[in-house]
Amino acid sequence: MTSRFPEGGRFPEPYGQGSGANLADILERVLDKGVVIAGDIRINLLDIELLTIKLRLIVASVDKAKEMGIDWWETDPALSSRARRDELTRENTELRERLARLEELESGHAPREAP
Amino acid sequence: MIGLRYVYAVCRPFGTPLQAELTGVAGAPPGLLHHHGLVAVVSTVPEADFCEDALKAHLEDLDWLAATARAHQGVVDALTTVTTPLPLRLATVFRDDSAVRMMIESREDDFRRLLDRLHGRVEWGVKVYLEPEPAEPVAAVARPASGRDYLRSRRRHSHEQEERWQRAERFAHSLHERLAERAEEFRMHRPQNSALSGTPGQNVLNAAYLVPRAHSEEFVELVDRTKDEAPGMRVELTGPWAAYSFSGEETGSRPGTQSGTKPGAGAGTESGAGFGAEAGEGR
Fold this sequence. Notes:
heterodimer; A: mainly alpha; 0% strand; disordered N terminus; B: alpha+beta; Alpha-Beta Plaits; 2 domains; five-stranded antiparallel β-sheet; four-stranded antiparallel β-sheet; 10 helices; 22% strand; elongated; Gas vesicle structural protein (chain A); coiled coil (chain A); Gas-vesicle_GvpA-like (chain A); GvpA-like_CS (chain A); GvpA (chain A)
């Protein structure tokens, strides 16, 4: 792709854009950037702004999206400290069980042989 | 049913025609509306889908939003290959052509100033990701011999995490400095959450650079060269975009980011605050 551009300069091959572009990247730009103009049918600028913020939060922020009830990642320990705590609890339980099994093995034969 | 006018971008008049098969939002081909020496790129959209109430509902629908956003971006993208457009935000809708003309008249000076500023420049997006950790060999994780071994391995693990993170931040920072040197302006965007954007790895840097078209090739090569520089990091380049990140009108109200600003002045303050601090969250 080496077409001369009217304003001068070669136009490099598009990178990761067009149909393959990450939707998050497109939304980030078309919703959040660009010139803001309140159209005359009163698509209230404020409303658009609110929607924009809401959607941007979905794209950008775990915490806010969580407020909106989207919380499936909470169970992923890599993403959530609570899930990390849960994992700790799980590990703890597992270790306790192992300990209990060991203790049982060690003292196990005595009571069983007794009668 | 009456149609409304959807505006994609404002440009200076340009000679090259748009691709004949180009379709915009709602499947209609975009046309040009000349007024006062400026051009609004518009198409007709059905009122049933684009009146205020319908839009409110539609914008909450991710599928509709995705299709509309891609169509909007498709037109702006096509414009970028023939001129330097000033992209408008999604869903900028007017009753009719005369309303579009009135809007142009009322913003004329801003438009000209921004178009002059952006003339012959494009936006490149650069993101750095910390790649997901390679899975530990099963033997290493399984069955710690004692409680002490267990704690030791946990401590080592969290220490490694910390180091990886610091390496990523250092790399992102040095890459950004090199790129900013070759760009006229830059903007730091909030790192995208990987879980939500569906991209693997943790987004450490999410930046946009305003680069003269004539220097784009060098810029792209520079980014390409860094790709293998740091193991465990992934550098992603997107673009060329219309200068979305640089056409906001906060430009006027935020001192230091007006025309000609080299990074380090106003834009630098913003980036300084954003860098690292936000990237650290969600760790």
